Every structure is written in structure tokens, then in C-alpha cells.
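Re: the 163-residue chain
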Amino acid sequence: MISNTVKLVAAAVVAVGAYVFFTKKDTGASTGACSRCGKRPMVNPVTVGRSPYNLHHADASRFKALGELLLLEDHMINDPCPDCMNKHAITASRFMSEAAGLAGGEDEDVKTTESIESIRAELKPETDIALAAKTRDVRKSLQARLNLSHAHGAETHDGHGHG
């Protein structure tokens, strides 16, 4: 006899699967496959709705690296914890290495990885505004590559986006 809990979990899994299948952004192929490579995206219910990119493309790794760089920058200014900063730098670097591999060794991804590793080598256990600015420059460059430079169209009085 199947318990009610098992039935409920099975129903939830089916519901999540149906949601993912019917709501993901299709780029034109009626099969749900990517129009760039023909692959169906790997579905991970935990990441649904968090990344606008199919998970098997380099942009997904770039998007994740962007988040790690933002956290790293925040730690450098507000809470200079060496362990956390190192963790965010390593994670961002590894995501960019993954992006470079998925994109066939694209030069910009390799340069970004090298920049992150350079930042990591300079990490200090105290607030470092200059290094945070360097990290921000790397993050903003990556943001521009992902077409996220002026998120939500927000602009300051001088015409530049926030953050």
C-alpha cells in the first residue's frame, strides 16, 4: 500500500515537471530543444525561475559567476571574511572556467577567469575598496556581456545604471 506522503511527493514531482516543461522559454523549436544546439535543456527544479538561461549553455555559468562576484564585492566592502571571500572567488572562477569550456575556450571567458584568479591572489582579511572596485569592473564587464547592464531600465541622473 502506498502511503499518502508518497502519493503527495509523486504528485508534486509530476506537477513540477509539467510546470517546467510547459513554462520554459522555447527559442522556436516545437520540440522544446534549443534552437542553437538542438539539445533539450537539463531540468533542475531547484534552479527553475532563477536563471534566464538554459543550464547547458555557457551563459548559465556566466550568470552564476556574476552572482558570486556580487557576493565577493559585498564581502570586500561590508564584511571582509577571508573564508567567504575565497569561497566566492573560487566559485566564480570555476563557473567562468566552465563557461569557457562550454563556449569552446572563448577568449573573454578565459580573460575573466584570469582576472578573478588575480583578484583572489590579492584578497586581504580587511576592507579593500580598490580591490572591490577591480572586482566591480570585472562584474560589470560580465554583466554587459549578459545584456544585464541596465537591469530594469534603472538609470541615475548621469545616464549610467545602478550597481
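The helical segments are 4-23, 58-78, 82-102, 107-121, 129-145.
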